[in-house]
Amino acid sequence: MVTPQQVPPWLRRIASAVIDTTYTWVSPLGAIGPDDRRGRRFGAFGKGSIIAFPTGAIYNERWIRIGSRTMIGPHVSLTAGMAPGQEMVSDPVVSIGDRTLIGQGSYIVGHFCIEIGDDIQTGPYVYITDQNHAYEDPDVPIGRQWPVESSVSIGSGSWLGAGGIVLPGARIGRNVAVGAGSVVVGELPDHCVAVGVPARVIKQYVAGDGWVATEDRTVDNHETPASHNSNTGNSEEAPQDGPARTENADGTPNDVGTVETSVVKNVRPAVTRAARHDG
């Protein structure tokens, strides 16, 4: 048996060209469209939509619905349930809206309810699921405990960066940008930017102000916090910047700190002038 490494260079070039041409020709034929036999297995498969070739794992299509003019990239796994032939308790289990783009190598693994809206785009290798492992019983291996499910929704117009993960119970609003590699575990409001593990909002659109960083909003709305005195139980104003004030034995204010600061301010210019004069 001749191995690829033993093939002569001239024959390797010919074989490479043939394989490349064949793959380019076959790829459009291997894609799944609404009029294909495989496409008709889906609960819905909108006009102009396509699942690119080669596909990832796809099964239980009956409980999966795809809108119109939606593109699902190559190597995307799109499943309902744990195994082919499983009867599902909800319909649809996975729904993808119109004009949505799912990046290559992504996983959409539904068991109960995953709703992906219209005009959504994801980067490659995004993972979306509505089921997670349980670990309530510390004496039973996690893999043997019954998993928990919680529906997932992604609002229309949103963008999920490469490698993002959306876990059970996530609620992503409309026109939300989720940074690459972020993990969404809760709710994200409309018109915001979220990043991190877990994903947190760092910027949000505010009517009249435009896109505002959440830190800026915190500063703008900030009030001087009151500190709590654990000895008296009373609230006190937070200390202000500036020199500390002390009291004399008779209780009168002692402005030593203020005086010292004033002296230092007056001495420094004098020292500087003296140094210049000596030079």
Describe the structure.
- The N and C termini lie far apart (91 Å).
- It is built from three helices and 28 strands.
- With 279 residues, the chain is an alpha/beta fold.
- It has a seven-stranded parallel beta sheet with strand order 1-4-7-10-15-18-21, with no helix packed on it.
- Residues 218-250 and 255-279 have low confidence and may be disordered.
- A hairpin with a 3-residue loop joins strand 23 (200-206) and strand 24 (210-213).
- 19% of the residues lie in helices and 27% in strands.
- It has helices spanning 9-30, 214-220, 256-278, and strands at residues 44-45, 50-51, 58-59, 64-66, 71-72, 77-80, 94-96, 101-102, 107-110, 114-116, 121-122, 127-129, 131-132, 148-149, 152-154, 159-160, 165-166, 171-172, 177-178, 183-184, 187-188, 192-195, 200-206, 210-213, 226-228, 235-237, 246-247, 253-254.
What labels would you give this structure?
globular, 19% helix, seven-stranded parallel β-sheet, 279 residues, single chain
